[in-house]
Amino acid sequence: MTSYQGSGPGVPGVYARLGVKPVINAQSWVTALGGSLMAPEVLRAMQEASTAFVDLRELHLAAGEVVARMCGAEAGLVTGGAAASNILMAAACMTGDDPSKIDRLPDSTGMKNEVVIFDGHRNHYDSNFEVAGAKLVPWGFARAGKPYQLEEAITENTCAMAWIAAPFMRDPMPLKEAALIAHNRGISVIVDAAAEVPPPENLTRFIAQGADMVGYSGGKGIGGPQGTGMLAGRRDLVSAAFENHLNTNGTRAGVGRSSKASKEDIVGLVTALQIFMDTDHEAVWAAWRVRAAYIVERLCGIDGLRVVLEDGDTNRQGPQAVIYFESRWKGPKPDEVRAALRSGDPAIHVGAGGYGDEINVVMTNVQPGEERIIADRLEEILSGPSGERSTR
Ligand SMILES: *Cc1c(COP(=O)(O)O)cnc(C)c1O
After folding, report:
1. Does ligand 1 come within 6 angstroms of the Cβ of 166?
2. Ligand 1 within 6 A of CB of 79
3. Is the minimum distance from the CB of 229 to ligand 1 under 6 angstroms?
């Protein structure tokens, strides 16, 4: 079976020579731990790409067609990450194809530069839209938003509605409904879906629900180079995004120029995307489930803890072992457990749930065999002097 997760890190000398120790990543595709591992085919494709010069614009257009096809969109573009996709989507909505506006960003004076965003969707990546020169206008409250609140937030200076699709994020209404309101008012809908794939169906889902453009990370679940992303959507907007990336007609580098994608990046992402589409995702999920079940099995029966395998919940990134701490638990607190895992050798990183009160052992990046190391360490920390294991 081809795995888009690569074949495991071993003990790479390149890190050893820099004095950097590999970690066990049971926290999912987080950037801070390296995103994902590329399949050997992706690395070979990047190496091959590095052996010849090409017209980068031509390469971008050809790769964009592959992205578009996979996303069921009119057009696509490889970017330097989902954060870069956010910058470029906002820029495209402000400038359209007007070269003088593209030249002026991030100074958006005189342009329709307001981007409305549901208050409950605010997150630290929404600063990306501001980097392009947009002004964020929140609507609704943290936990709820009504159609009239969205209507009221839209003014004659609004160019787009931003929508964030992310685990643990609560939508105020279906995207389809919000998109209808936005389109009736003549503004575009841009979606940050950085970490929403797999499942592969999410590549087409947001456009089908009314998004004009949607951005993804290339280096998370798709398994492309960590420094890549992509966006897909309406041809006119993607073309405007492209100009804001390279600004080939202008006098100044585009606002997206600092997050460019190299020829190797572009080829790597396209290759990863093709492997991703050919992957038997059910088999991959089944393998994750087996590893999660192993950890649950190893940890069940500790008094005061509820350890369960969670699967199929759309808010969770794949099957995972989740540890809930009950009120009678006398052992280390969740953050102490996470700190103990991190301070070991190898360091183990796990998730914390939406409120930091759980331990989520996420399997997407756990390499074969690492589940044993994780279970050993958790068992040691949780049933040590303070944790009591009851007899089963
Ligand atoms: C990870 C993430 C990003 C940034 O993605 P990069 O590909 O690392 O630039 C943006 N938005 C959300 C919601 C994310 O989860």
Report:
1. yes
2. no
3. yes
Does the beta carbon of 232 lie inside 6 Å of ligand 1? no
Q: Answer whether 38's CB lies under 8 Å from 251's CB.
A: no
DSSP letter (8 states) at residue 11: -
Structure-derived torsion over alpha carbons of residues 39, 44, 47, 52, reported in degrees to the nearest 10: -130
| Integer Cα distance of 281 and 200 in angstroms | 8
Residues 301-339: pLDDT tens digits? Answer: 999 999 999 986 655 678 999 999 999 999 999 999 999
pLDDT in tens, 84-127: 999 999 999 999 999 999 999 999 999 999 999 999 999 999 99
For 48-92, write each residue's pLDDT tens digit. 999 999 999 999 999 999 999 999 999 999 999 999 999 999 999
Would you say the pTM of this structure is higher than 0.85? yes
CA-nearest residue for atom 14, ligand 1, is 194
Domains of the chain as residue ranges with CATH? 13-36+281-382 (3.90.1150.180), 40-278 (3.40.640.10)
**Atom nearest to 193 CA in ligand 1:** 13
DSSP 24-86: EEES-S-GGGTS-PPPHHHHHHHHHHTTS---HHHHHHHHHHHHHHHHTSSEEEEES-HHHHH
Tokens of residue 133, six digits: 């020169």
Token pair of 184, please?
Answer: 């009736």
